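Repro case for the chain-ordering regression, as requested:
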Amino acid sequence: MEKIIKYDCQFMSAEKVGSFGFKKQELAKLGKKLATINKKIEKLKNNPDLSFRKLPYDNLLVNLLGKLNVILKKNFKNLVIVGIGASDLGARAIIRTLAGRYNNQLKTKGLNIYFAGNTTDPRVLDDLLKILDLKKTAFFIVSRSGSTIEPMVSFLYFRKKVIGAVGQKKAQKHFIISTLPNKNPLSDIAQKEGYLNLAHYPGGGRYSVLSANGLLSAMACGFDIKKLLAGARVIDKISKSNNLKVNSPFIFAALQYLAYKKRKQNISVLMPYNYYLNEFAFWFRQLWAESLGKERLGITPIAALGPTDQHSQLQLYIEGPHDKIITFIIAEKYKHDLSVPKTNNKEMAYLGGHSFNQILKIEHKATSVSLMKSQRPNGTIYLPELNEYYLGQLFFFFEMAAVYLGELLGINVFNQPGVEHSKKYMYGLLGRKGFEKEAREIKKFL
Ligand code: PA5
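-- result from build under test --
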């Protein structure tokens, strides 16, 4: 039988943390809404916003990416993903979780993966260009709108450099695009210059990690994207259940909702203990912030990391205001392990012989229990292992939880009007046609 990630919420309950935790009857009451919400979501299944639920079943895309990967491997050594926000964070989370930090130095198969386009700080681009052999480098430009300033200026800069290095004609093969196929500045350039446009999936960026946006680099780096998608399908299946005992994404959403609405706990910390899930926490942070922070509502997401933040944040979490709920993530089985060497030092001898993995688990348990003892609600997501399959589950778990939480709060989780506002001011200030009104407006304050 296929294993499923487990959400352990016992330390979120009133039984364990008193008045700061949820009551069973509150959860049961919310659970009564699940069938109606699932029915509504099912009805909207052909709405582009919800098309992320179709991504785990997209075999055509898997085949296309497979072919593309062969070409990439034959011609290039490096792949640079150029994007910002959702067009960057999902791919980063996959690569960091599965490949670690030193992958480009350590690996033997697949391409070296780099990320750019999420800043206009020129040093980052400059440094990257110093280490890349452009003749051996492909670029994946991801922008749903095809007009976001940060990735677009990076793209224009890389494009000029690549043309300089290999000539206009050959440069064509160095760029792959993911943008909506309708008219926008990036798709216009792609069409004119003959770049392959994978066509951004119709839904919003935050729910695009299991589209080409996240899968191309995962595959190019040597990971099995079929397993990622198989994992996501498992969570899709349990999300269709109206049984509270089965539908863990709904329970997660319901407990976030109850904490926020009933107990004014408006900060949600995600604290993985496996180090390379740190970028996953950043992906979660954006999902929670942009999906749920609107109409004067919102739960502020914090990306933390265990055990690192035991020595930075934990004091606040344990003795600060009762405004947080914490979610840990830890893999039960972890293929990496080391043993602490024995020592004669009297004070340190107790450490000798322990495995690093065992210590990691002890750190998580000690933190979780001490939080509970201080009446700080916390839960843990246990991954049977840390691999493509369970990572796919994890992404889909949070995507579905965000949708459920949006439904409970009565919020449209798929738009981001606040982000658009500042984008328009930037366009205005930089002289983009059609944004003169915004330019006039912001100039009054400069
Ligand atoms: O989640 C979102 O929609 C945003 O964070 C966008 O991903 C971000 O603004 C980048 O937009 P685009 O993909 O259009 O370049």
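Ordering looks correct now. Residues 93 and 280 are 5 Å apart (CA to CA).
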